[in-house]
Fold these 3 entries.
Entry 1:
Amino acid sequence: MKLRYLIPLALVVAGCGAKDQGAATPDNAPTAAVQKKTLKVALLTPGPVSDAGWSALAYEGLQGIKQELGAEVSQQEATDAKIKDAMRTYAQKNYDLVFGHGFEYNKPGVEIAKDFPKTVFVSSSGGETASNAGAFRFYLEQGCYLAGYVAGKMTKTGVIGSVAVQNYPSIVSTLKAYEAGARAANPKIKIIPTSYFGAEGDASKAKQATEAVIGQGADFIIHQANAAAQGVFEACKEKHVLAFGTNANQNDNDTGVVIGSAVIVAKPAFVELAKQVQSGTYKGTVSLFGMDKEAIDFVFNPKMSTQVSPEIQKAIEDLKAKIKSGALVVPKDNF
């Protein structure tokens, strides 16, 4: 960003009783001022920000930038072929920073960045970078690992499963962590392979996919369904099994089946990256935000606390402490 400065000329007049021929007058007195360019930040999401999940948490991060930095912000949904068009449009409108909320925005951002060196493109997931493009990764695997641990300890059927919209690397990694947590709690547990329903925002297909997993004996389900999560929860309610929320805190879902949530707290990451862009210090890289930066958590549903034994609750708190200290490193894929 460019700062424009108006620097006053200092006039020093010496001599007792001399005429002040160089003294500033109202007509020629300069004014010291700093004009600071307003930061412009855009957000692209794969679904509506009303989804109470993945897109909603990113929107909260965007609002955090607006509140803390006084930025001008904008948001729109963009998927598939619309991604590059949206990025290009924002860059043409001189936006300083464009967030793409998901793995699928990483490659397009790096490609578009070549044509717009004054705009920074950042995706939440991905491994490709350029001088003005990169990614940041929420270490959601940590929260999902704890959800898996709870499932492993509490399952009555000895079977658990998962449902997701697509097999994006970022999604697959979180579900692997869920499985690792479950096996740490119960080495004999049976884990049904993830059911991918493949249609963003389609709650009906998400419900069908969940019913198929439950039909194989699973009594705990975790999802990466984005805006279609309601379909997952409704299936769980009808089949009398428990679910985990992901990305946002979904404990208050009206189905009453969410026993806990693996939560992303987006504001710290969004604001930190925006500050780097504002100061001109951003370098294309991949940043990791986890429990140690207060960006990830696992939260039990207080309305269902009586279903979780004190021993399990304590075990989760102990595991959180180990994760934050680095004593426990939750597995994650590199991509």
Entry 2:
Amino acid sequence: MAFDSNLAWLTGAGGLIGNYLVRTAPEFAPAWRVRGLTRAQLDLCDFAAVRRAFREEPPQLIIHCAAMSRSPDCQANPELARRINCEATAVLAELAKDVALVFFSSDLVFDGRKGNYVETDPLGPLSVYAETKVAAERVVLANPRHTVIRTSLNGGASLAGDRGFNEQMRLAWQAGRALKFFTDEFRSPIPAVVTARATWELANSNQTGLFHLAGGQRLSRFQIGQLVAARWPQLNPKLEAALTKDYPGAPRPADSSLNCAKAQKQLSFPLPGLTEWLAAHPDEPF
């Protein structure tokens, strides 16, 4: 099979991270001819269609961003979550057995008892979404050519206007709703444009294996809400403090913050904390 040495498939191109990867490719990955794939262009759950598309135009790199990523949706429909997050990933990993594959996973694969997680820490998924990511990771990492990137909350401006955590907050405040934010749940939020740049750097330097890629600042959900609210004072945003014990859904990790030292060693720039990045980019959509 003759591979196009410059062709990169990018699944989930209509999502937040996927769209930033497409948009930043001319700057950060000019050697690649990027084919952004949305669900309308290629349904990853139609495995025959995926195999046919791969045969017709085989890539040298697949960056797999597409996922069923909202945890409540996964809890409500675990069978669909496994088909999208596990089975579709397995098909792509099989097709890409001789080429590079980058798969996006999540900080939620940890149980949250520790925080500041490194790549070698034991996993402890608490939700269906997290379980599907753990299962998919194992499939991807079975091939030494392949890469898993665990990331955290990503923010920015999406095509749909509701994919970033910041966009969901803004939409609620525009509707006049007050939002509850956990003071006892901690994450490592990162702008999607930073995730995209770092991902391209890792892919371009043929880094394989497992990497944590998130913001350089551990923040509670409430602190994150405060930072985004300060960006939109004209909306008169309403924030209420809450505790995870009062959340009615699946258990939530208390502290899934990530230690990104391994990835940082491979990057040409420091991974910023959200507070720092927002201050340095007052005009960026967030």
Entry 3:
Amino acid sequence: MAIPTKTIWPLDPHTLAKHEILRRYLQCWFPILNTYHGRIIYVDGFCGPGRYSKGESGSPIIALEVATTHRKALGGELVFWFIDERADRIKHLKSELQKFQFLPISKCTQNQETFVRSWKRS
């Protein structure tokens, strides 16, 4: 797959499969992690705009949807950190997140920078 040049692009079949794996992984691991830790931190270093050209959910939305569906089973703090190097994609993601119903004890941060620089800063 070529690197997308637009803010929003069509969802590729292999990305759809990757997102299904991510969804199933988080559905299993969010409750497990929450059993042993008071805080779950989810970092998406290449988050993109949050949605694809036909409205399909991207990885940030998938993570938030999974956390929401498990809300009764999850306690403690949920922290979501979404990073992308392109300002246009972060701007679009922020508009998508405004539509999203956040959990009462969750934090969500979006940063426009490269993932490596973000990680070294922490």
